Predict the 3D structure of the following.
Amino acid sequence: MRPIDFRIIRRLIALGCTAVLAVLLAGGCVGRPQTALPREQMKRVERALNEVEAATRDATRDLRRDWEEQLRSAQAQEKPDPLETARLEFAIAYALERDQQFREAAAGYHKLERGPLGPPANFREGEINLLGLRDRKEAIKAYGRAATAPLGATLWQRVPAASGRPRVQGGIVWPSVLAGAPQGRLELVAAAQAAQMALDLLQRGDWRYQAVSRFVALLGGDRRYSHALALLLIAVVVKLVTTPLTSSSFRSIRAMQSLQPLIKELQEKHKGDRPALAAEQMRLFKKYKINPLGGCLPMLIQMPILIGVYQGIRFYIFQLSSARFLWIENLAHPNMPLLIMYAISLYFSQKLTTMPSADPQQQQMQKTMTLMMPLMLTVFFATLPAAFILYWLFYNILITGHQWYMMRQPAPALAPAGGAPEGAAAKARPRRRRKK
């Protein structure tokens, strides 16, 4: 039986934690697959919306019944046209909104969230939840889906007319209104920008939004550099807060490394007897007061901090959309050169902090994981905003520097519980009996 290398176990857990974190982050920021409607279909949708705007309430109901009949006919075909059905379903939901049947309209828009009319449907659902149903939580969810729309995606937004009174919701002057509101008009606007503006208004009271905002204000509030420098300063603060956890994790790894020769002896002694080997290993860990998962638990504790920082950046994304840094024109958009820099930094940090192993199989596994993590995260983070990648890049550099420093410190001497320290691979020497 090969000796257990807990460094490999730690790396596997780290990879799993990173994958979970990446899925969580990507789930909140990666847009769902959407295909743009052809120009002719877009015009047909807009004509339907204008019909609703111009019609009375009774006429709107007649229009909705006609569209529902057309939808049934389209769905009854052997191969329904998804573009045609999406157009009709959106028009029906808009007519329901005009008729103030808000729950039915929200459900109709929700069905379209993954289709070609996803961004405008998600945005209208957010408007209904906020202004019609007064459900702030569901409104944030719907706006969040619209905010991840691909670059270039557009939606129709109902805005108050110049002579109309602005809509006030929760003390906020809202930039749009529901269908059929007096003196409102339709405008075609950028989908992601409209949704991000709505989220910015709703979330600016959140403590995570306020934390990022104060860091930006502390560094001057200049959109040419303050936002990026604020992200770097946040990375420094987070690293200072998590340094005790990182140090504890690394000390535990070094202690497990020092214990490997004794574990190898036990494996040779109890070859073929796994229950006895497991029992002896647990006695060994207890004797030297070493937790075999001590290098992994601190990493799990850090995850809520990292997710909290990400949420703060996501809440502040509308303000970041007009911020620049070096060659990055928009910190709210993905930036591939920056992502490649992050992947390269992660590869070298993995390579630097990988402890050597005498086992060829374990060496090969370490090499595979050193390559796999940067590649996997490059795929996961490809659509994340440059602001988060910039923060993550600098944080990774700080962690690598800390680990590089600790690797060059002498390995801790093993000390049995209540006994004197021993060498890394020293065996407990038996006491000599005194001659009588």
In short: The radius of gyration is 29 Å. The first helix runs from residue 6 to 29.
